[in-house]
Write a structure and sequence with these properties.
This protein is of the alpha/beta class. It has 2 domains: 3-129 and 295-321, NAD(P)-binding Rossmann-like Domain (Rossmann fold, 3-Layer(aba) Sandwich); 131-294 and 331-348, Dihydrodipicolinate Reductase, domain 2, CATH 3.30.360.10. Helices cover 33% and strands 26% of the residues. It is built from 10 helices and 17 strands. The chain has helices at residues 16-29, 42-52, 61-66, 79-91, 106-118, 136-144, 173-176, 183-194, 298-310, 324-343; strands spanning 7-12, 32-38, 56-57, 72-75, 95-98, 124-126, 151-159, 197-205, 210-213, 219-222, 228-235, 240-246, 254-261, 264-269, 274-278, 284-286, 347-348. The protein has a 9-stranded mixed β-sheet with strand order 16-15-14-13-7-12-11-8-17. It has a 6-stranded parallel β-sheet with strand order 3-2-1-4-5-6, with helices on both faces. The protein has a two-stranded antiparallel ribbon with strand order 9-10. It starts with 6 loop residues before the first strand and ends with a strand.
Length: 349
Amino acid sequence: MQNEDLVRVGFIGAGAICEQRHLPNLKALGHVAFVSVCNRSEQSSTRIAEKWGFKDIDNDWRELIARDDIDAVFIGTWPYTHAEMAVAALEAGKHVFCQARMAANLEQATQMLEAADAHGHLVDMICPPPHRMPYEPYIKQVLADGVLGDLREVRLVCRNAGDVGELNWRQRTEYSGQQIMQVGIWAETLNAWLGEYEELRAEFESPIDVKPDPENDGVDYELHIPQVVKLVGWLKCGVFIQEDHSGIAIGENANHLTITGDKGAMRIHYEGDVEMAKVGEMFHTVGPPVSLQRDWQVEKDFIDAIYLSREGVPACDWGVSPDFAEGYKYMKKMDAIWRAAQSNEVVIV
């Protein structure tokens, strides 16, 4: 393959998810060249470069973005860095793949969306949550065909003990911003399957108010990201919805979405199983037909979109999801959740 036919990529923050999914899947495509990587330390960058075959390393992410031998940038850093890096990459003429969650807050998400709109010939994509695969086509088909009848209620339960234990980066406001547990992951999923919220009310609880900070000699770190979130509201499609999120639910590992209509209900588990029930029945696992399944092809979707952009195909036909426009929608919800909890009022999303 000629060099001009390759997609040349650089990685900023090639951490665990990049090694688990993005790097091996890109390598398997065969028409992606690994040019440079920039991690937090030169030692880490060198390890990744040697393991995955990157030609170079850069010690400053700005230098990586400025290179003229890179077509696309993968951003695998923490949310608070995404906006600055993504905007800079787009302005430098690079396609951008950004690890979830999109940004630290709505202001940063707005900056990313505006940059993407200003460079519409470039591909922008956010990594989707794995539970949207492989059954999303089946779930959308069930809803489109009206199998459940007129929708009456949506209920999301996400309860575990993920916030119990030592302080981690997801609990740090300076790294995560407005992101809370898996609320953002499910916000994106709800938008894709059922549409956005019209309005909502939110309640926060933070039973654990401080934790020893290993980055500051064990000094107490004050926690501002809640460990319990309760949401109720209405979707724009007119359906009532309630969400129950907890990171302190010791002994529990419930993570599922239930969509109920007047003819039946469907329950989607984060791990991937789908259950159905008709009126008068209990839930039972269903096996969606192969024609309505789509396995993880995230990296291929992004690279394919770059080739389509090179061919002059309109952006609406690139097939990337979620892009920055979709990410902006769930960031609007995250912002509304914080405003609702702080004001104790119903907030229009």
